[in-house]
Amino acid sequence: MPIKAKKSLGQNFLIDRNILEQIVNAVEIKDKEILEIGPGTGNLTSYILQKKPKKVYVIEKDDELSLLLNEKFNNEINIINNDILKIFEDKISKEKLTVFGNLPYNISTEILSKWIVNLDKNFWFDSLVLMFQKEVADRIVAESNTSKYGRLSILSSWKLNIKKIIDIKPESFSPRPKIDSSLLVFTPRKNFFPLKEAKNLETITRIFFSQRRKMIKKPFNQIFKNAKEISKKFNIDLNLRPQNLNPELYYKLTKEYESLRS
C-alpha cells in the first residue's frame, strides 16, 4: 500500500531522478558517514547508497515511514526514529557527517538556526546539502543592500560558506508543493567572528530588523547608551536602514554589545 504524505509533517517526497542525481553529486560522499534528515520513502537514500558511503544514518520522525525504510533497506542504514529538533547531532557519530536534507518547510529555518547557534569550532559536519523553500533560500543567501537580506542571511553566513546549486520546480515532488524549492550547500568557515553567545547576535539583529524600513538611529539608541560614540567608532551613518549594514558590522556591533554588558 503506497504511503501518503502527511501534511502535518510538511512531507513532499522528491521523485525527479535528475534532481536526485544532482543532489548526491553536490559533494563527495564515497567512504563518508552520511546523515539524511527526513528521508521519506527513501528515494534519495537509494542514490546515496549507490555512492558507496561508509555509513548512513537517517532521522525520520514518522513511525510508518521508519518501518517502510527498515523493510526497504534492512541493515544498509541506521534509522533514528525521532524528531530532528530533539536530537543532539554531534552525538550521532565520532566522525564528521555529511548531511542531506529535504527539510520540512514548516521548521526548516528553525533547524538551521538551531545548528548554527549550537556550533563551536569543532563542527560535527563537513557539509550540509539542504533543500529549502526558494523564498527561504533566497533570504539565506541574500547580500546586504537587497530587499531579501535580513536576520537569516546574517546568522547563516556567520559560521558557514553558502552556495546555491539549483532551483527545483514543484513537479519534481509528490505531492506537488505550491512553491519552488532551492538546494543549498553549506560548508564550515575556518575562521568565524568570535562572539560569546549566539543569542546576542539574534538579539541585535532582531532589534535592528524589527523596523527594517526605518533608520537605524532608533535601534542604535535602544541598544547602546553611547550610540553616537559607537557609530563613530565603526564609521556608521545612523541615517542608513538595517539592510545597508553588512554582516561583519552586525558581528562587530554584537561584540561591542557583549563587552559593554560584561
Describe the structure.
With 262 residues, this protein is an alpha/beta fold. It has two domains: 182 residues, Vaccinia Virus protein VP39 (Rossmann fold), CATH 3.40.50.150; 64 residues, Helicase, Ruva Protein, domain 3. The strands form two sheets. A seven-stranded mixed beta sheet has the order 4-3-2-5-6-9-7. α4 packs across α6 and α6 packs across α10. It is elongated, with a radius of gyration of 20 Å. About 2% of the residues have low confidence.
Calculate Rg over CA atoms: 20 Å
Number of domains: 2
Q: Helical percent range?
A: 25-40%
- Helical stretch tally: 10
What brief labels describe this structure?
Helicase, Ruva Protein, domain 3, Rossmann fold, two-stranded antiparallel ribbon, 2 domains, 262 residues, single chain, alpha/beta
Question: Any chance you could write out the topology, listing elements then pairs?
Answer:
Layout: E1 13-14, H1 17-24, E2 33-37, H2 43-50, E3 55-59, H3 63-73, E4 78-80, E5 97-102, H4 108-118, E6 125-133, H5 134-141, H6 151-159, E7 160-168, E8 173-174, E9 181-188, H7 198-209, H8 217-223, H9 227-233, H10 247-261
Parallel strand pairs: 2-3, 2-5, 3-4, 5-6
Antiparallel strand pairs: 1-8, 6-9, 7-9
Helix pairs in contact: 1-2, 4-6, 6-10, 7-10
